[in-house]
Fold this sequence. Notes:
4 copies of one chain form a homotetramer. Helices cover 47% and strands 16% of the residues of chain A. Chain A has 13 helices and 9 strands. In chain A, helix 4 runs parallel beside helix 10 and helix 9 (230-246) packs across helix 10. Chain A starts with a helix and ends with a helix. At the A-D interface, helix 5, strand 6, strand 7, helix 6 and helix 7 of A face helix 5, strand 6, strand 7, helix 6 and helix 7 of D.
Amino acid sequence: MPLTPDQLAEIEAARATPRLTLRAVSEGMEAELYRAHPVLDHGFVRVIDYMGDDAAIVQAARVSYGAGTKHVSNDEGLIRYLMRHWHSTPFEMCELKLHVKLPVFVARQWIRHRTANVNEYSARYSILDREFYIPAPEQLAAQSTVNNQGRGAVLAGEEAARVLALLKSDAGQMYDHYEAMLSTEGQQGLARELARMNLPMNIYTQWYWKVDLHNLFHFLRLRADAHAQYEIRVYADCIARMVAAWVPLAFRAFEDYRMGGVTLSSKAIDCLKRRLKGEVVTAETSGMSKGEWREFCEVWG
Amino acid sequence: MPLTPDQLAEIEAARATPRLTLRAVSEGMEAELYRAHPVLDHGFVRVIDYMGDDAAIVQAARVSYGAGTKHVSNDEGLIRYLMRHWHSTPFEMCELKLHVKLPVFVARQWIRHRTANVNEYSARYSILDREFYIPAPEQLAAQSTVNNQGRGAVLAGEEAARVLALLKSDAGQMYDHYEAMLSTEGQQGLARELARMNLPMNIYTQWYWKVDLHNLFHFLRLRADAHAQYEIRVYADCIARMVAAWVPLAFRAFEDYRMGGVTLSSKAIDCLKRRLKGEVVTAETSGMSKGEWREFCEVWG
Amino acid sequence: MPLTPDQLAEIEAARATPRLTLRAVSEGMEAELYRAHPVLDHGFVRVIDYMGDDAAIVQAARVSYGAGTKHVSNDEGLIRYLMRHWHSTPFEMCELKLHVKLPVFVARQWIRHRTANVNEYSARYSILDREFYIPAPEQLAAQSTVNNQGRGAVLAGEEAARVLALLKSDAGQMYDHYEAMLSTEGQQGLARELARMNLPMNIYTQWYWKVDLHNLFHFLRLRADAHAQYEIRVYADCIARMVAAWVPLAFRAFEDYRMGGVTLSSKAIDCLKRRLKGEVVTAETSGMSKGEWREFCEVWG
Amino acid sequence: MPLTPDQLAEIEAARATPRLTLRAVSEGMEAELYRAHPVLDHGFVRVIDYMGDDAAIVQAARVSYGAGTKHVSNDEGLIRYLMRHWHSTPFEMCELKLHVKLPVFVARQWIRHRTANVNEYSARYSILDREFYIPAPEQLAAQSTVNNQGRGAVLAGEEAARVLALLKSDAGQMYDHYEAMLSTEGQQGLARELARMNLPMNIYTQWYWKVDLHNLFHFLRLRADAHAQYEIRVYADCIARMVAAWVPLAFRAFEDYRMGGVTLSSKAIDCLKRRLKGEVVTAETSGMSKGEWREFCEVWG
């Protein structure tokens, strides 16, 4: 259970007292506010605040286009038009603030998305909790033999058991030593900023993360993708469901044009055009490298 | 009057229908929402949306510092501590979205603040209105004779009258020609994206501008400063009053540490220490350049 | 002629004195350094400095992938792989610094690319030159009747002549009045920061603009595109030729995957797959909006 | 020794072949190029590339100010003026690319500086080396008793020995287990992206880090500060020495106005003015909080 009874009580209290506002309100997001969605074994994602809704995207676009925009008759059509033509600024007019609890090695990937605001729990200042990510057995995958950056088959019986045992005992031992170094019983206690270096990267940290909708879509496209590491993908999937509740029109356009879309190179366009004319195109006649051709065939057969 | 009756009616309608939310609410900002504050002769600033309040800054900071932060007993003390030590990330957790109408030459300065989101009215897409900034007589200042980047005395009688007449007649003529080039009566009409190039830079444009509180404070420090050009300073002053209503604790800390503060060089520190010991320090013995010494004396006499 | 004899002499002097360096050197870019390429009637682009080359992109990527990357045998293959999979960070390791002279209305579009560094000529501080963009007759296009944001047919005889005459005489008059307001003969002279507001947006300004290669590619994709306004596209085209000389492998990958590529929505993928199976897909059975279908047919017929 | 003989040979080879360039050259930085400066027990910093020099800062500033800038007669005066008045854009015209090897917990602090470009060694893709940061005995400090975020006295004999023993044996054991999980002898071997989670945060990683001079100064001001954690401060100190060799005029201005400077709040200004008039100001009459007063007295006695 990622949340303590105290935290649950706080959430219920925050949800119990609605207040009046004149701002844009997304009913879908109000239903989400503060509630923690469990991710992995001890992690969670929850919405702390949001700004804007589908109408806010449309409104910002209409400021840009002025009276000239009247011929796009409805909001969904305009939002799809913006997404299709990479007009990103209206999507930047919405903002989301999340509270996320996540393993450090996931946080290290996540933070590479620079256009966001972050307040992370400081292990220099405070003491981390004894919580580590231990993968579920079905996630204990072997190194891929075809892709340096991927997973292969799930580990079987004994090897899986051995890995799990190592991860668990190491995490426990490292945390024991962390506590032993910090302890001030009969000693001074090592500085927190030093003791933390002995903790493994599957320990959980937490942060507030604030991002605009355009950059959030970029994050989701990369991290909810099948090639992303499973442990960050589950966070992205969870956030994607929240975004669908928040800005349903924008999310549908994102699904159609980004998540479900592909980018074709000029070579790939050429191959498809030849195929459409009935030509049989092969790896050899495609002009593509092996890798490109393999990826092309994954989509087009 | 910067707003049309239609726009005023829209604002009243938007303000007439409060809705329930579970988010942080700033009463001071709710009172501001949508209302247009006139700036210059045809411009305005109005708040379209906001995220967070003073408590949200504190909350984000406490995520970072964890249990270790309990000894700072109150919110105002913590906010002042954050401001004093340049801990900017908690201030980034608040966000403000404004609708601004402003002359193009002001927009050109404003846009240099890159960490913000903008949707500007597109003169490529739509036709600009016939509205130009014509300075009030008391703003018709001469070029400063001591500062290449500043204003001197206000122009007197005839010279002022001549300047005003030129500005007014030129603006009118340029707009007449803009319309003449665009006109499709008996002709094709020049493309909007070309015709706009004939407009002077005191024509008004408008945009939605969204920024986080940290970057907004940076904007205000530079643009509400006495050395900023008057025509952007009045916008900054107007926004500063809104921020004071929105996050009063953070704004007071900003006023004390940034707007009302100064930065001393190591040479300036040295001079002050010598003065405190009773030494008479002169331009010659200060080790400063003429410019530095003049600026030092402006503060310290 | 956009350059004065003094400026040409400066350029020759700068090119006359090669120095030794241990840094990565791009021979293609060395040949470009400092030389001004004319753009529009008075504008130019020239390279002031650069950092990195194709090998620097590869080197940065190999730091990320470590020993695991050895199986991609050559530099071009690796660069194409990076481009195809949107691995943008190695491209960020190259940097370009340009000196650009351009009309203000072009500068206003350009500056919206925020991830770049800019030092613009200050009309607050100094006096602008009497140089205005007057379109060549073949660029005097009518407003498009199908696209709010585009150009239609070129204006013919009399209408073109009338527009040119207006642009020329207005520019001249506005500049005369600018000078008259600034003049200190027998008067104080209006402050520069005020007088500039009377200048039209086809006056030329100039700036140093520094950007990394990833963000430059993004700029080129949007601004060298057929839908970009002609007056910024000619700058983008000019810069594209420089980039081809600088990092030829990266530029070829960019051309293939970005400039010459297309993004397909999930609906478009579905339509193409149906076509590949021999089905006749129409606007009605495509599931697309009218606009999407039109754009789809532009590529696929 | 942080570098292998192969790496040293590569560095010597890179330094052995100077080439001709027309770009700005900083002799001070040429002497640094590629050479690794050891930091901590296994880390290093080395310069891979740079763009610009002191003259480039001046040149960019003169583009902005145009002919109006002639009255600032020399380069050093202009650079000091820019630094004093927070004119940051000319400093952004210089760029530095470093290769850094550093412990993960240091990398986690470092990466919070978002305005930079990074290519980090990927433990998803490749296998990390067996190298851990083990503090020197004089760095084994106790938790500060007055500052939650600081170090107190150095640990003495037995406690220090116990901490060192724990850090060393834990690092060794974790790395053994990392290898055991990855091993493909008689088993499939756990995916690298999973196995890495068992490594402690004192393991070394490495990256290419590219940043402009303005943002680098900001990094140095925060990280070369006495309140920064020792383990990142030694990197900042090392980089500061490189910057002094690269752009000596800019670095001197930075030292005077930023590193050696202080920011005074309006309350602090008031207290100093009262003192200059001979008044005795105490904590009680200062209007400051306890913390502010303590920090004020640290500077002013």
